[in-house]
Amino acid sequence: MIRSFMTWCALATILTVVGASGVSAHHGTLVAYDREKQWTAKATVTEFRYLNPHAQIYFDVTDDKGTVTHWSGELLPNPAQLIATGWTRRRSMDALKAGTVITVTVAPPRAGGNVGLVMRILNDKGEELLGGQPGPPAAPPAAGRQ
Amino acid sequence: MGVAMRRFIALAAVLAVVSAVDAAAQARGAGPAPGGAAPAPGRGRAAGPGYPKFFDSNMPFEARDLAGIWTPNGNGFGGGGRCRDCGDRGFSFEFPVFTPAGQAAFDRNTPSYGRLKDSADAQAHPEEHIGRRRAQSPALGNDTYGTCNPMGMPRAILYPDPVEFIVLPDRILQHFEWGYGLRTTWMDGRKLPSPLDVDIPRWWGYAVGRWEGNTLVVESTGYDERTWVDHFGYPHSGEMVLRERYTRTNYDTIELTMTVTDPKYYAKPWTSETKRMHLLPRTFIQSSGWSGLLEDLCAPANELEFNRLIRDPAGTGKPAETGGRR
Questions:
Q1: A15 pLDDT higher than 80
Q2: Chain A contact for B124, CB < 8 A?
Q3: Closest Cα partner for B78 from B310, B286, B225?
Q4: Is A52 in Cβ contact with B9 (below 8 Å)?
Q5: DSSP label at B124?
Q6: Which residues of A touch B119 (CB under 8 A)?
Q7: How many CB pairs under 8 A join A and B?
């Protein structure tokens, strides 16, 4: 009982703390991406970097025709913030090893291209990784997005 | 359950309860947050949650003892969240009157904080000075901080990450977590150089301090002109003199007001809104099992690679490299 309450508190804190950061992230992150045009898709991690100024994730998205598109993504939290929410380097790197299948929600760049702001990551069990990000509901996956 | 996980969950529980209580207070429209007045309604962006409340503000304190880790951050750690009562990242909501040279310098600066230039969001807030409504992607901006140059003052103290005040017999050091910057205020009675006599401008300026009652008054000058007053690209010239007034108002709160005097760029002195920062337990910030400020360094090796792989293609639409290390 107590443990489940504490776990709930931990999850609530992750969402609260990360949510708070969303309004005032580091340098220009909120300007470069259009969070009104988020999309969600299955993806395969090719690399994850736990670095300043922001953690980065690189991943492949395969559309209905089998075309693979490579994406680069930044996360709003920096390592300091990930540590604060319990996502230590080891835990994060273990959760996002190359080859891991994820469901990723991305805000695309206003200028176009395949670099996005990663708003949410779920693993194949549907568990949220790295705390998630605030934002409007994700649109259904769309094939061939660029 | 491991020790680290138990510690994390305990910490999380404290923060969650604090946040929940604070959020409830906000939802009720409760009055001023602990430590000061609520932000003015309708101004700027929503601030973060209330500060991490670890102390009884009414405990006895030594008004001239500023040593400790203080934060204007809503969660105490790095990452940018701002306390609800700490003010925003800008220097002031009372916007300055530029001289012609100041206006020209302001126009040359292209910040990446604030509302996106020419966006519906920017157009929806005509009450805000254009400085807060002209942000562009970092790839299109010219903020020297974007390549890890020091923020200088007063911008660094406006950044919402923790700062440690280290008090020595003859000086006070402000150690900023983000960027791991170190600023020295001399308390040994030396005189501030005239801005016109500064030999070499400094990113962190030349600063001297004295006590006026229980308020620490810091005067500084000699800043490198490439630093900005705040994140929105307000400029200063080499003639700027910055006055900061730090007052510990209770056990866990410091209030700060600042005035920029820069006749070359500003037609009259420009005074900040009151900023607040709150005390953190020395053991609060932890990584790798150690307590103390994180080495949250803006290292060019990281930043330039990040710009090349992420920021620049995101801001320009140019193709990104296809992942992977060089």
A1: no
A2: no
A3: B286
A4: no
A5: T
A6: none
A7: 198
Q: Quick check: B46 pLDDT over 50?
A: no
Nearest CA in chain B to A4: B9
Average pLDDT score over chain B: 85
Q: Which residues does chain A have within 8 Å of residue B299's beta carbon, measured at their own beta carbons?
A: 52
Q: Are residues B217 and B245 in contact, defined by beta-carbon separation less than 8 angstroms?
A: yes
Q: How far apart are CA B148 and CA A53, in angstroms?
A: 10
Comparing alpha-carbon positions, the chain A residue that sits nearest to B49 is A20
Could you report the per-residue pLDDT of B151-186, keeping only the tens digit for each? 999 999 999 999 999 999 999 999 999 999 999 999
Interface of B with A in 66-95 (CB under 8 A): 74-82, 89
Structure tokens at A62: 């395969």
d(CA B173, CA B245): 15
Dihedral angle over CA of B153, B296, B182, B147, nearest 10:
-50
Q: Which of residues 233 through 262 in chain B touch A, CB cutoff 8 A?
A: none
- Asked if this assembly's ipTM is beyond 0.85, the reply is no
Partner-chain residue, chosen from B16, B17, B138, that has the shortest CB–CB distance to A27: B138
Return the residue matching tokens 């001239």. B64
3-state secondary structure of B105: helix
Is B313 in Cβ contact with A72 (below 8 Å)?
Answer: yes
- In this structure, the dihedral spanned by the alpha carbons of residues B264, B269, B274 and B276, taken in order and rounded to 10 degrees, is 40
Average pLDDT over residues B183-208: 97
pLDDT digits (tens, 9 = 90+) for A81-112: 898 888 999 999 999 999 999 999 999 999 99
- Note whether A81 contacts B82, CB cutoff 8 Å: no
Question: Would you put residue B44 in left (φ > 0), alpha (ψ -120 to 50) or beta?
Answer: left
What is the average per-residue pLDDT within B283-302?
91
- What is the DSSP secondary structure assignment for residue A88, as one 8-state letter? -
pLDDT for res B183 = 98
pTM of the model: 0.81
Taking Cα atoms as reference points, which of A80, A34, A32, A59 lies closest to residue A123? A59
* Every domain of chain A and the residues it spans: 2-129
Q: Give dist(CA B73, CA B89) in Å, integer.
A: 11
Of residues A137 and B207, more confidently modeled: B207
Q: Looking at domain A2-129, which CATH architecture does it have?
A: Beta Barrel (2.40)
Contact A81 B77 (CB under 8 A): yes
Task: Give the pLDDT of residue B323.
Answer: 53
Give the pLDDT of residue A27. 67
